[in-house]
Amino acid sequence: MRSALRTSIVTAALAGALLAPAATAIAATTAPRPVPSTRAAVPSDDSGRYEGRPVHVGNGMIAVLRNGAEGPEAWIRYVGDQWKPGDDYMTHVVGLVTRGQTTAEAYGASFELTKAQTTAPVLVVTTKGVAKSYPLPEGEAGQVCSAEKSQDIGAGMSAKLFTSPDGPRAELWVAGEDTAWRLLDRSYPSLPESAGIIARIVNPSGAAPGFEWKTQGGGTPLGRTAFPALPKGCKPNYKITEDQAADKPAAKPAPTVTVNARPGAEVKPQGRAPR
Predict the structure, then answer these.
(1) Exposed e or buried b per residue across 83-99, where buried means at least 16 C-beta atoms within 10 angstroms of its C-beta
(2) 24 pairs with which residues across the strands?
């Protein structure tokens, strides 16, 4: 009830400021759903790739702690308040921290992977100013290759921009919400027109990707900013292709991931999250 009411208030505040299509596209009717991960869908016989040691971290969430060949990972999943050890935990993904992205937020909690470059990383979960630590299994040491920054994009919205060896990633947040509204990355670099606002990663596979946005109508110009650079010594794990000029919008391929659609918005099918 509280979440639905807050969603209605936020939507009312945005309606006058967003582009014209947004006024009808984001009318609030139900509470938002958790945001699935942007990782590829998992074959039914490969669920073990995402299994690990689940620990309850509060607010209806668990963290699945792993430290295998992929390096340290903590998958944050929403399981509800009734979950107990031994119950199924392969449910909704609402966050992920790795050496490539060491921070995340969901449902009033912040998550940080500390000592990420060591053999014994630790997940620190902070809720209402109280921090708790959860050691991950020991693994191989490695360099932290991530950078991030926040950008106000107007109309009560902000973008969190991340750079890792996997490429640029943007989380779009509405003020007062518990989870990100949409996620953009190399495979899904631009919002569809039905979203009612402009938000896109420019040159998503290039050496210097950028982010563009427009959340207000009238003569408001496009906002532009660069993604943070990878730390020295870190390299992308994909081929660099300068396929977009810096002053042109990114292409809009068929979506391949599931995102958290605001209530009432038109969203095309985009695959499914890891189980």
Answers:
(1) beeeeebbbbbbbbbbb
(2) none
Q: What is the mean pLDDT of residues 253-257?
A: 44
Which residues partner with 54 through β-bridges? Answer: 64
Query: How many CB atoms within 10 Å of residue 144?
Result: 19
Strands 122-127 and 223-226: unpaired
Q: Is the pTM of this model over 0.85?
A: no
Q: In sequence order, what are the residues at sequence separation of 6 or more whose Cβ sits closer than 8 angstroms to the Cβ of residue 29? A: 263, 264
Query: Which residues, listed in sequence order, are joined to residue 211 by a DSSP beta bridge?
Result: 201, 225
Q: Rounded to an integer, what distance in angstroms lies between the CA atom of residue 245 and that of residue 139?
A: 41
Among positive and negative, which fits the CA dihedral 133, 53, 93, 59? negative
What does the block give as tokens for 124?
A: 């620190």
pLDDT reading at 183 higher than 80? yes
